Amino acid sequence: MDIQKIREDFPILSRTVYGKPLVYFDNGATTQKPRLVVDSLVDEYYSVNANVHRGVHYLSQQATELHEASRETVRQFINARSTSEVVFTRGTTESINLLVSSFGDEFMQEGDEVILSVMEHHSNIVPWQLLAARKGIAIKVIPMNDKGELLLDEYEKLFSERTKIVSVVQVSNVLGTVNPVKEMIATAHAHGVPFLVDAAQSIPHMKVDVQDLDADFLVFSAHKVYGPTGVGVLYGKEEWLDRMPPYQGGGEMIQHVSFEKTTFNELPFKFEAGTPDYIGTTGLAKALDYVNGIGMEKIAKHEHELTTYALQRLKEIPDMRIFGEAADRGAVISFLVGNIHHFDLGTLLDRLGIAVRTGHHCAQPLMQRLGIEGTVRASFAMYNTKAEIDALVAGIERVSRMF
Ligand code: PLP
């Protein structure tokens, strides 16, 4: 894997910040975009743009073909059985809200239970809390050990005859923990319970195969996997999606409307009310093609090397505290140094051109469990280098000396 060549595909990586070369370590929040993704958006606006699905004219049909070809690219990327199982949304958050609303309306009654984990992103907590307020369902939480690994024995004990669904993140956006979701799905299925995988932080870094996992639902965002903002995916097994009611009403999701009775479109369109971001979906497909072109195994290997190197170098810094020491971990490292406030450390690193994220990372219950308010988080992507990690370490040492 030629990192320098890859970096040339990402124009933003050659810019400076405060006169320093940009070191971009905020990939967990969003990844940068290769030129071909941005070009695809511009090209489609300039040469194809027309609303999809409804037109008899040439441009509309061409735009529809591109949009549906993107759905096929996503299907292949996650190995879904059919494009009927690939619903386009605005992102992970909307995918989860769709699922919670539709599944919750159809299959959950007062007193029923959902199992989440202590390391969920707010996007996989708050929609369930809104459902709890609406319908009186209960939320049960899988605890973790001090290394940041979920306690699978405790998980198993949370199931009851009222458990209707489990929803757990595959890779923690704070700890980097890779949760054994395949095993956890098998446990849920042994209890006859479906499982939603939040793949927002796994899709960019590892092969995710919905059939191999036997996931019932899986969600992710395009912008975290080198694609554009505003596009996401909800994968769902057809047998579930078929039985679920629409999430929003509008154009596209109907078969026939009268004031007496409306019938709904087939999958996946039943869940796609209104004009979709058909240009964004092309961008997503280009991003996935780009990832495939480099090869997920190579990307994973490179990021693993980077993470191992970063952990080793960061641990050389006095008073370094790293949160998350799971045996299986991804390319995310959260830390604090001595008594330096995470916000101060992040702000001063920024002045050195190093972009890290600070705060609770939309995981306040996890912060509570760790007994802290926030961390500094460095998260890596395929284009990051060991030299950039050296710059981070030197930056932290410099800030430490100032305090
Ligand atoms: N889930 C996880 C694990 C995340 O890391 C994020 C974003 O940081 C989300 C969900 C929400 O993603 P989005 O803001 O793209 O909807």
> Mean pLDDT score, rounded?
97
Q: What is the overall number of helices?
A: 14
The strands making up the biggest β-sheet line up spatially as 4-10-9-8-7-5-6
Rg calc:
22 Å
Q: How many strands, which pairing sense, and closed or not: the largest β-sheet?
A: 7 strands, mixed
State the end-to-end distance: 39 Å
Helix-strand makeup class? alpha/beta
Please supply descriptive tags for the structure shown above.
403 residues; alpha/beta; 4-stranded antiparallel β-sheet; 14 helices; 17 strands; 17% strand; globular; binds pyridoxal-5'-phosphate
Question: Mind explaining what this structure looks like?
Answer:
This protein has helices spanning 3-8, 35-47, 58-78, 92-107, 126-135, 152-157, 181-190, 210-213, 238-241, 278-294, 296-314, 342-351, 364-370, 386-402, and strands spanning 16-17, 20-21, 23-24, 86-89, 113-117, 138-142, 163-169, 195-198, 217-221, 232-236, 254-257, 262-264, 320-323, 332-337, 354-355, 357-359, 375-379. It is α/β, with parallel strands linked by helices and 403 residues long. The chain is globular and about 75 Å long. The protein starts with a helix and ends with a helix. The site of pyridoxal-5'-phosphate has 13 residues, from α4.
Could you give a quick summary of the protein structure above?
This protein is α/β, with parallel strands linked by helices and 403 residues long. It has helices spanning 3-8, 35-47, 58-78, 92-107, 126-135, 152-157, 181-190, 210-213, 238-241, 278-294, 296-314, 342-351, 364-370, 386-402; strands spanning 16-17, 20-21, 23-24, 86-89, 113-117, 138-142, 163-169, 195-198, 217-221, 232-236, 254-257, 262-264, 320-323, 332-337, 354-355, 357-359, 375-379.
